[in-house]
Write a structure and sequence with these properties.
seven-stranded mixed beta sheet, 454 residues, alpha+beta
């Protein structure tokens, strides 16, 4: 497969009667935005175009125009970060690439080589893009790739400085609505400043706090990404194993998190008679828990970490001693702790005190135990309804080869057909080589199966 870039552009908010972004004051980041490093999260939406009468040139032109109109509402995405405090320069623009693919979409999806997904996005996934928070990098970049059959893939590189999953989903649904001409009814007008009002920025954050998330994400070793698919039956069987009196009804995401946690730690200790402590850091969308409707369409990182620690109590204890239900109790309790009462302590001008306590506690654990850390995030229930008029995405691709220093990360995505879940797992190369050959692991999952015969 060859991908040829045929054009590069920069899209800015359209000049309309309501386009007053040039006179807007800088958009303030939230404290959660400030704490996140500058790195690009990838996403590729695949649309097989069935309509034989579609005009590709007109479609590409309309995608550009509708994006420009959408940026009138989402104008901060066209700007640049300033001093890790705000976004300004809203006419800097969104890099926008168009590409041609020299094969049909079904040929790619029949046996997907996920490493090739990097050719569908403008920026390499999850690299450490900047040594300084002052670097003026784009916050959003897009690539529209057209297959020889007329199928279209829309690739997104969203800076995690301002994009979480819900933010990206709302933006893409709005762009699709504008493209369809349904924006008068469905364009998601954002509460632009609500996140920074709820979690105000701070201009003198200690460097150790800024380095906290960076140290969790980036490890400096050789990592690889693999795609594992769990069908509905396998998920139900694992949920049965994870159940207990304490957690009688574990969710699918909780269950798969614990299953991967168990097998990843087992793989890391392969050939050893003991193991280190391990920690799961699960990114949790906190919009529902905060029960503030104005945050539903707010932009920015509106999530927090649920931290679960598994600390061996016996030096001879091995990963085989971990029961799924015991790991589930640890994880469920940590997620349950992110309730409205706790999250209120993170808000407002006094919230930085609670955030500092949280980070200090995690830094102490990392220093004293030197644990293995595994990050999980779920993109289920989002992106599948991004419809440009061609139907919902046939497949949602996450990432190919990640940045050279990204650590242990798993992204969950729903399969578009059926009730399965894809886990895009990034682990150290040696660790992955062990896990992907583990028969107890493979009994419940399929490594990188074909998408569909189309």
């Amino acid at each position: 497969m060859e991908v040829t870039i045929i054009s590069r552009d920069s899209i800015t908010p359209a000049a309309t009667s309501s386009s007053v972004h040039r006179h807007k004051k800088p958009y303030q980041l939230s404290i959660i935005d400030q704490l996140f490093p500058i790195t690009y999260a990838p996403l590729v939406l695949f649309y097989p175009i069935i309509d034989p009468n579609i005009n590709v040139s007109q479609t590409l032109a309309h995608l550009k125009n509708s994006l420009s109109y959408t940026l009138v509402v989402y104008y901060p995405f066209s700007g640049r970060i300033k001093n890790n405090l705000c976004i300004d320069d809203f006419d800097a623009g969104v890099p926008y690439l168009e590409a041609r693919i020299n094969c049909r979409m079904f040929e790619f999806l029949k046996l997907p080589e996920i490493e090739l997904l990097n050719q569908f996005v403008p920026f390499h996934p999850f690299c450490q893009e900047a040594k300084s928070h002052d670097d003026r990098l784009p916050l959003l970049a897009l690539q529209v790739s057209v297959f020889s059959c007329g199928g279209i893939a829309i690739g997104v590189s969203g800076s995690h400085k301002i994009f979480d999953g819900a933010t990206a989903n709302n933006f893409l649904k709005s762009w699709a609505a504008v493209f369809r001409g349904d924006h008068d009814k469905t364009l998601l007008h954002t509460n632009l400043y609500q996140a920074s009002l709820s979690f105000p920025a701070k201009d003198d954050i200690p460097e150790k706090y800024l380095a906290f998330t960076n140290s969790m994400l980036f490890k400096g070793k050789r990592y690889m990404t693999r795609r594992f698919v769990f069908n509905a039956k396998a998920i139900d069987n694992l949920r049965d194993k994870a159940k207990s009196e304490v957690v009688p009804n574990p969710t699918s995401i909780e269950t798969l998190t614990c299953f991967l946690w168990k097998h990843a730690t087992a793989a890391s200790r392969y050939g050893s008679t003991s193991r280190r402590a391990s920690i799961v850091a699960h990114a949790v969308n906190i919009r529902p828990q905060l029960k503030l409707s104005m945050l539903d369409n707010a932009i920015g990182n509106i999530f927090w970490w649920a931290i679960a620690a598994n600390i061996p109590t016996n030096k001879g204890e091995t990963c085989d001693d971990d029961q799924l239900c015991d790991l589930m109790k640890l994880l469920h309790e940590s997620i349950k702790g992110l309730d409205n009462d706790y999250l209120k302590t993170l808000q407002g001008e006094e919230g930085f005190g609670a955030i500092s306590e949280f980070i200090d506690r995690q830094l102490e654990v990392m220093y004293s135990l030197k644990p293995e850390t595994y990050i999980f995030t779920s993109w289920t229930k989002i992106f599948k309804e991004v419809d440009f008029g061609w139907g919902r995405p046939f497949w949602i691709g996450v990432m190919g080869k990640v940045g050279p220093t990204l650590g242990n990360l798993t992204v969950f995505v729903e399969t578009q057909w059926g009730k399965g879940i894809e886990a895009w797992v990034t682990l150290e190369e040696k660790q992955m080589a062990v896990m992907e050959k583990d028969p107890q692991f493979l009994a419940f999952t399929s490594p990188n199966p074909h998408i569909s015969s189309m």
